[in-house]
Amino acid sequence: MEYQKAAELNSMGKGKIVTEYLCRNGFSELTVDSKKVSVQHKNDTSRKETEEESPLPALEAAYTTILRGLGENTDRQGLLKTPLRAAKAMQFLTKGYHETIYDVLNDAIFDENHEELVIVKDIDMFSLCEHHLVPFFGKVHIGYLPSKKVVGLSKLARIVEIYSRRLQVQERLTKQIAMAISEALQPVGVAVVIEAAHMCMVMRGVQKMNSRTVTSAMLGVFREDPKAREEFLALTKGAQ
Amino acid sequence: MERSKQKQMNQNENETEAPINGHFDGRAKVPGWSAGGAAGTPSTVPSSSVMESWREERTRSLEDNEMSLPSIAAAYTTILRGLGEDPQRQGLLKTPWRAATAMQFFTKGYQEKIIDVLNDAIFDEDHDEMVIVKDIDMFSMCEHHLVPIFGRVHIGYLPNKRVLGLSKLARIVEIYSRRLQVQERLTKQIAVAITEALQPAGVGVVIEATHMCMVMRGVQKMNSKTVTSTMLGVFREDPKTRDEFLSLIRS
Q1: SS3 of residue A93 by DSSP
Q2: Which end of chain B is more exposed for a tag (fewer CB within 10 A), N or C?
Q3: B145 catalytic, yes or no?
Q4: Residues of B in contact with A135 (CB under 8 A)
């Protein structure tokens, strides 16, 4: 499945194996197959459960090495606790690996007899470029045409959070968000547009300050029917 | 040593101005950049204090960069594993090297000296009106979280018979911002460097920046901006000059 393949690309490494399945309910979930946690259902894989194997000391040591390698003096006052802070910051910025769609969505799907476009736009998104480990950030616009089922609006933003707080590529991020909504609601169509600024292009490399990258994923009726797509794009462009 | 004497003089002169910050608590230790190793034994060299920026030694060379790249890349591999990612997957295969090179670029200010950048571009002009270069894009790294800071720098100075090539102001910003920084210190270092180079009647530097450590994590306030300013010389003493500067950068 296309989705599963994309998911495997985001899968985690040796110590904890995380794979995404399409469970019987029709939407994906993350499961952690570690020594501590053997359940397959909706428990979340919070970091607290694996405190004994906490990677924090290793991350701290790595950051200390980096600081020294850059020529800084790790004993000066401003840098004393920086390895710890940077390690925690990095863990926060990749916390999406430990959250499951199942938790976030499970309660907030409602049966409504609504068949018009629902859009949540200008969702601030912050992610990390997986190639340079440098932030990219921007706005996400999500629209879907429900088919009897609607989702709580903040859950769309939470889906964005789960997938963006990872090492990402903007194309994959867009697709993952669209697929997650598609699997959860089985709507008539889903459209996701992300417009972001990549610090790896702005702060280094080509150094183009004002460049923005726009990606979109159109599924279902948004892919087939140009009028639906136009309506979505017109509504998200207005009053940006 | 002449250097330490001068440093003492400078510190006395500017006792009221120069706060003791993390960069120079006494004589700070800087890793010795001998031909041998990247993370060599720290040797006591005169710290690159704010007041000595004009005369500071280069702390890093291109050879040092090359030598330390493998260890930084290895550290990034550890970080990727520690975060739970698989460093062998296609998208991450070369990431440690790319991230290490990127980080070296973000701290390339350590490789450069003010004196190299400025030495030729100071001209004698009979100009004593305010000169402002504003909206200089600035990108730095927060020294507490290793996360980007970006914003704009506005610089103004009142020359005293000597003017500086305009792009050199932007280059001074680059040298000091491409480091692990604290916005307050960055502002001061830029102002002091210009003062030391030109001995103008006054210098004003204003920085308005967004800190990703506040936006992407922590309090997560998207629209917050931090503004710091340093006013030296006549900009500090004369409120009218300061007002003129501030209104010109706002327009």
Answers
A1: helix
A2: C
A3: yes
A4: 147-148, 212, 216
CATH architecture of the domain formed by B116-249: 2-Layer Sandwich (3.30)
CATH of region B60-109: 1.10.286.10
The pLDDT value given to residue B58: 67
| Boundaries of every domain in chain B | 60-109, 116-249
pLDDT tens digits for range B205-227: 999 999 999 999 989 998 999 99
**At A13, is the pLDDT very low, low, confident or very high (cuts 50, 70, 90)?**
very low
Nearest Cα of chain A lies from the Cα of B160 at a distance, in angstroms, of 34
Q: What's the structural domain count of chain A?
A: 2
Token couple for A30: 């993350």
Across chain B, which distance is largest between two alpha carbons, in Å?
A: 63
Residues 100-129 of A with CB under 8 A from B: 124, 126
State the residue for tokens 């609504």.
Answer: A114
pLDDT above 80 for A84: yes
Does the pTM surpass 0.80? The reply is: no
| Domain limits for position A151 | 101-236
Residues 6+ apart with CB under 8 A from B133: B154, B155, B156, B166, B169, B170
Q: Which residue of B has its CA nearest to A14?
A: B86
